[in-house]
Amino acid sequence: MGESYKFKKAEKLCSRKIINEIFLSGNSFLCYPLKVVWKYENLPPPYPAQVVFSVPKKLFKMAHNRNLIKRQLRETYRYRKNDLYQYLEKYEKKIVLMIVYIANEELEFAKIEDAMSKIIGRFNKIAEQTQ
Known about the structure:
The protein is of the alpha+beta class. It has a single domain, classed as Ribosomal Protein S5, domain 2. Helix content is 45%, strand content 19%. The chain contains three helices and four strands. Strands 1-2-4-3 form a four-stranded mixed sheet, with helices on both faces. β3, α2 and β4 form a beta-alpha-beta unit. α2 runs parallel beside α3. It is globular and about 40 Å long.
């Protein structure tokens, strides 16, 4: 798979059933300002991961604020996903994950980007340990 920085429809997690399963039986960890809930799942090819982003309405009442943060989350994921895909393909794993923004205020893009890098690195360690 080439170094594509696109975020295609097949990479987005849309299934309510799978999202509910993630919350019921998935694993989670925090990497402020993000919380990650994830689970190993059998996914159809070609992508080893599907992801959904969430910004709670309770924290950000205005939709344009939530949408701005979700755009920033998608953007940071889009640039880092190739590293995640390499780790998952190396260990022959497929995952579904939900990334939730938990900070009470809008943070700088650089902090979100740093947190996303830490999350990707953490998945490398998780994949190594379960091998």
